[in-house]
Amino acid sequence: MEEKYQISKKILNTVGRTNAQYNLIQEGDKVLLGLSGGKDSILLACILERMQRHAPFKFEFKAVTIHYGLGEDFSYLTKICQRQGIPHEIYHTSIADTIREKRREGSSYCSFCSRMRRGALYSKALEMDYNKVAIAHHLDDAAESFFMNLTYNGSLRSMPPIYRAENGIQVIRPLIHIRERQSLDFVLSQNIPTAPDCNCPAKQPDSDKPPIARLATKNFLAELEKNNPEFFKSLKNAFSNLHANTFSDERFLDK
Q1: Residues 186, 198: contact at Cβ < 8 Å?
Q2: 134 vs 24, 174, 185, CA distance in Å?
Q3: What are the DSSP E strand ranges found in the chain?
Q4: How much of the chain is in helix, strand and coil states, percent to nearest 5?
Q5: 114-172 residue pLDDT tens
Q6: Phi and psi torsions of 35, nearest 5°
Q7: Least confidently predicted of 66-75, 165-174, 223-232, 239-248
Q8: C-alpha span between 44 and 173 (Å, rounded)
Q9: What contacts 177, CB < 8 A, 6 or more positions away?
Q10: Residue 21 parent element (H or E)
């Protein structure tokens, strides 16, 4: 039997503290993981498998990969899950066709696709009686979301570690305090294959709205961190240190 992938103690400690702080996974939970095949979701799958073996509480988890209907080949992902002892299912959908039919011209592939992918994952969780859905968003994703909402939507919002969806399922983000580069280091150090960009509908030839805004935001944040190496540490702390009454929202003003 092949050896399990090695996860750094720093990553494991960070995820462990995050799980304890926000009670993300508890005794008796049934967790459905959205496994895209990218570096972040593969890392999370491996962490959950290890957590299941070593945590002082019992929980179930299964990885589900959403197939868009673009002819994706997830055989490499099946092999990874088999090697790691991760229960895995590929859920075939027609998301790509639906995007082509119903997406408004000029609107973003990413937001529409994300909603449909999340909806498919929720449906699968409800169908199989899972009470939590795990998503592999990390601190860089939360930062990008915050600045994109600030810049393009005029709102102060980001990505919480845990929230309850309208259908009652709790959505958790165990990697929310992990940096993207840590996920990258993990897959590179273990020689783990990851999903190619061509699996993304926004990368298809008929896409008239590539995700340029997110790339611009990512580059902006990289420049901020270059000038201030403590930037992401400060931002992480800021997300847990809100002073709502210092803004102009009437709901929070000290009157």
Answers
A1: no
A2: 9, 7, 21
A3: 30-34, 60-67, 88-92, 132-134, 162-164, 170-172
A4: 50, 10, 40
A5: 788 888 899 999 999 999 999 999 999 999 999 999 998 999 999 999 999 999 999 99
A6: -105, 100
A7: 66-75
A8: 9
A9: 14, 15, 17, 18, 138, 139, 236
A10: helix 9-22
pLDDT given for residue 55 in this prediction: 94
Q: Take residue 21 and report the two structure tokens written for it.
A: 């702080």
Which of 38, 45, 39 lies closest to 72 in space, CA to CA? 38
The Cα-based distances of 57 to 2, 52, 86, 119, 123 in angstroms read 26, 8, 18, 29, 26
Structure-token pair, residue 245: 């009454």
In the block, which residue shows the tokens 């973003």? 108
Distance CA 135, CA 48 (A): 12
Dihedral, CA of residue 27, residue 32, residue 33 and residue 36, to nearest 10: 180
pTM: 0.91
Query: Which residue matches tokens 């408004």?
Result: 104
In the block, residue with structure tokens 């896409």: 207
Q: Report strand pairing: 132-134 vs 170-172.
A: parallel
Calpha distance 7→178 (Å, rounded): 13
Spatial distance between the Cα atoms of 34 and 64, rounded to a whole number of angstroms: 5
Strands 162-164 and 170-172: antiparallel
